[in-house]
Amino acid sequence: MVTYGFFNSVEGDRKYDADQMSEYFEGLIGNGVYASVGNALAVEPDEGMNVRVLSGRGVINCKWLSNDAAVSLPITGSDPSYDRYTAVVMRLDVDNRLMKLDTIDGTPAAEPVKPTLTQSELIYELCLAWVRVNAGDVSVEEANITDARPTEDCGWVTGLITQQDVSDLTSDIYDELHTYAAGDYCIKDNTLQKNIVPTNPPEVWDPTHWEATNVGDELTEIKSNLIKYVDYSITLSTNQNVSPFKSIGTKNLNGALSGHNIVSLTVMGGTSTQIACPKYVESGDYINVYGNAAFTCTVRVGYI
After folding, report:
1. pLDDT at residue 250 is higher than 60
2. Which of 98, 105, 205, 245 would disulfide-bridge 254, Cβ 3.0–4.6 Å?
């Protein structure tokens, strides 16, 4: 059936209901939480076995929920023997014509799994956060709350036309159900972390198994691991050009470095005022070392 709208009514011949008004936004705004409204429905610990959902706004299937103050939600008491997960959700309930904030409990188990979200025509849920409730817990700790808003279980609404799909960008958020090897990376509390103690089997977050880092430091380390060095012993007289890529013994150094990028030049011993060579070595290239007196030195060349 073809439907259309909106036009002014003439003697009651054009009437529209709430569903038709909502359908106007279909294809323009996707499901998720508005990243820039209030506190974006962030979830944090409250007193005892409670969490609170902060202010924000969300959309599910063109229906909206707006929260202008923190809302406290009770978390079911812990099991004496086993851990479980509880989902903090934003739920659309079509039959009851409402949207609400609620929780869904998983099943306590030796290896607990997250509860399944309902996403049907009549009930549709997005997860704002996963709360791990450990055996015997009497309060909710911040370390046991995992933000689900940037993941495929929820998502960000960042503009009128598109919903930002950041599931790939946030796939490295720490997952306590995942194993990590030494040198692996994850994101925890918006900080890049590098694993120093393998986590196998999976475990809840242990800060002693990770070290905070940043992209700049990691790129510097990667670069340093790639750089190789070769030393040349050179005897200089004042302002003499020297060509260390000439053969030493039976090894042709020109051939060894030809095609490489030079990333560092260091003079060890003697005194020089300038040292230079091409950044990219081709056949016949050489290093220029200019000294203010005759001396013997070693030039260490770093190359990739």
Report:
1. no
2. 245
Query: 289: which strand partners?
Result: 275
Backbone angles phi, psi at 268, to 5 degrees: -120, 110
As a residue count, the chain comes to 304
- Residue 19: strand, helix, or coil: helix
Running DSSP on this structure, what letter comes out for residue 202?
A: -
Domain span at 268:
227-303
Integer Cα distance of 4 and 131 in angstroms = 44
Token representation of residue 217: 């430091």
Whole-structure pTM value: 0.52
Of 190-199, 242-251, 277-286, the range with the lowest mean pLDDT is: 242-251
Express each pLDDT in 101-136 by its tens digit: 999 999 999 999 999 999 999 999 999 999 999 999
- Indicate which CATH number applies to the domain containing 185: 2.10.10
Cα–chain center distance at 72 = 28
Using alpha carbons only, give the angle 123, 125, 129 rounded to the nearest 5 degrees.
Answer: 160
Q: Is the peptide bond before 7 cis (omega within 30 degrees of 0)?
A: no
What is each CA distance from 56 to 44, 47, 269, 297, in whole angstroms? 14, 21, 65, 67
C-alpha 93, offset from chain centre: 32
Domain count, the chain: 3
Cα separation, 63 vs 87, whole angstroms: 21
Question: 287 with 275: CB under 8 angstroms?
Answer: yes
In a domain, residue 58? The reply is yes
**What does each C-alpha distance from 187 to 126, 197, 207 come to in angstroms?**
22, 16, 12
pLDDT tens digits, 39-96 = 999 999 999 999 999 999 999 988 899 999 999 999 999 999 999 999 999 999 999 9
pLDDT of residue 62: 85
Q: CA 226 to CA 215: how far, in whole Å?
A: 17
Residue 261 to residue 245: CA distance in whole angstroms: 14
